[in-house]
Give the backbone structure.
Amino acid sequence: MKTIQDIDFKGKKAIIRVDFNVPLDENFKVTDTTRIEAAKPTIIKILEDGGAVILMSHLGRPKGVEEKYSLKHIVETVSEIIGVSVKFATDCVGEVAEAAVADLKMGEVLLLENLRFYAEEEKGDVAFAQKLAKLGDVYVNDAFGTAHRAHASTTIVAQFFPEAKCFGALLAQEIISLKKILEEGEKPVLAVLGGSKVSSKITIIENILDKVDHLIIGGGMSFTFVKALGGKIGNSICEDDKQELALDILKQAKAKGVTVHIPVDVVAADAFSNDANTQICDINSIPDGWQGLDAGPKSVELFDKVVNQCKTILWNGPLGVFEMESFANGTIELGNSIAKATKNGTFSLVGGGDSVAAVKQFGFEDKVSYVSTGGGAMLESLEGKVLPGIEAILK
Ligand code: AMP
């Protein structure tokens, strides 16, 4: 795996695909700088080597050129974060971009305009990728968030740099962290899968069964399993057409020696509302008119025991409707358990959409080993897919 550490960038102009798809407020101020900060180590390494940096990214989902999606809005923030005054090119290809690159001196940073102002970007257009490739001597991919897309700047462009291409520090870190879970995880390995639907996680479950010793199935997803096993789930969320599949997963797990843990009790509510009446129920006997919206105290205790006996943990998906305060406890307690295990030497990775949001919201970000930056890219990696953006560098 070739990374920025394997290249001396002295005298080179490096074109880096970063993920600067950051949220902006109504005054076009960046409201969350995490993604820009995450790209900093790669940019600094290249500048310190004596190279020049050309940054390319998308922002939002523009339909053609739309001023509100211009990357000019973030130039100041990027400059502040990396500590270098960043230049801006009002186009990402063609004469304007080429002139800006020609003017660029070593030690300087140039940000190109939004890649998605061209439909060719998402189409993975080869001619467009070639125009991007013309701008740099070396191609660096540091955008995990888009690595699952075969877009011009994330994948296709790499073919024009047969030798001079590598992973940025952030993307390398994502790959290494995933490897620590899926290939080199110290045993026992645990996956905690929560969230609302079995159907959206099925490929992950099937892939992960070969890698883990323990599997916790929590959140809304668990009710399909409970019902399939003959439990009474009241009005809890359930995918009836996935009951067979749930039983099959349990059979496969048994055959593979994976211990599956399902909640034993729930916080049930008489409405899908933060102010609903609640009661703690055994998971197999939720009354009609009531729905399980969070893991109950016995489940929390059970999961804590499992978490603390494992040396490698993957967490994807909340254990309850954590967006509502009344049903956030199970997710928070799981976070506490994982934080405690991490402190004791366990490697923990949190990845994929809602669990990342939960980890940030409840302040566990610095208490787990790694929080992935890529939602869809992380999910596809967990499904066992080789991401095109990663493959393009490895080729
Ligand atoms: P996913 O996108 O599949 O990871 O699911 C995340 C969503 O699942 C979150 O918005 C949670 O509110 C929701 N969720 C978790 N547990 C439950 C539950 N018991 N009932 C309904 N929704 C749930």
